[in-house]
Amino acid sequence: MRHALIDTPPLSLSEGGLIHDGVDPLLDGLRNQLDDQDAWLAEQERLERQTSGNANLRLQYHRTFGYFLAVSKAKAASVPDHWIRRQTLANEERFITPELKQREGTIFQLRARACQREYELFCQLREQVGAMAAPIRQAARAVAALDAVCGLAEVAATSAWCAPTISDGRELQITAGRHPVVEQLLVERSFTANDVHLGQGTDLVVLTGPNASGKSCYLRQIGLIQLLAQIGSWVPANPPSWWKWRKPPTSSITPPIAPWCCSMRSAVALPPLMASPSPGP
């Protein structure tokens, strides 16, 4: 596929520009003929400049009008007799010639055949890739898992994370915990670590404070640290003692509710979950 398909294919699959040269002999032949036509157009532009005596003449292409000869208004009155007026604009006149019109049809046919052939080759390539969908997905999952594990290992090594201790009790203890995302965003100062200790004497903490004081950051920090520990990752904290959830509390997002309401609902759901130790995975 890398040999056949270009690195940055266009959005439209029916206008060509998909397949490399040297992939298909028929497509290469059509492209060679188009190159010959481009050479003819360049030579025709030179000849018409010489015939008309207008060094500023330009042979151009428009998606609607096709190929034409463009001259300024001042030179429009002295064009050769075999030129046919095609369009009048504010600053220029556009003409065609019988030879140019005939060659235009040939170029359009060659271009359409080349685009059609490219699309056929693309469809064949797509079928080949589809036949290998299962091993491609398997390889993608393996690479994704490896990338996730390597990413967690790298950030744990560079950010002084530690391995959590998992216990079957109901105690949750986090010493010097840090928010894994906010910590990376701070440049001029370090993150202020926070502790949490639940399950022995304290089962519920009512967290209050002014706006932008860090309440949500503190709550999310605890949740992220727990999720990291449960997936087998190291955590941004000093060695904690961990307890297992039977089922993490969740908040409904339909309809939307305020963040503080989500926190209150989670607080209400905590006591039943902490009533007894988890039976294990």
Identify the notable features of this structure and list them briefly.
single chain; alpha+beta; MutS, DNA mismatch repair protein, Chain A, domain 3; Rossmann fold; 3 domains; 4-stranded mixed beta sheet; elongated
Helix content: 40-55%
Q: What is the overall silhouette?
A: elongated
User: Are there runs of 5+ residues with pLDDT below 50, and where?
Assistant: 245-254
Reading off the top of the CATH hierarchy, the class of the largest domain is best stated as Alpha Beta
Strand content: 5-15%
Radius of gyration: 35 Å
Tell me the distance between the termini.
44 Å
Give, in order, the helices and strands: HEEEEHHEEHEHEH
CATH architecture of the largest domain: 3-Layer(aba) Sandwich
Helix and strand composition category: alpha+beta
Question: CATH-wise, what's the superfamily of the largest domain?
Answer: P-loop containing nucleotide triphosphate hydrolases
The strand count comes to 8
**pLDDT averaged over residues:** 83
Domain module tally? 3
Read across the widest sheet, the strand sequence of neighbours is 1-2-4-3
How many helix segments? 6
Please summarize the sheet with the most strands: 4 strands, antiparallel
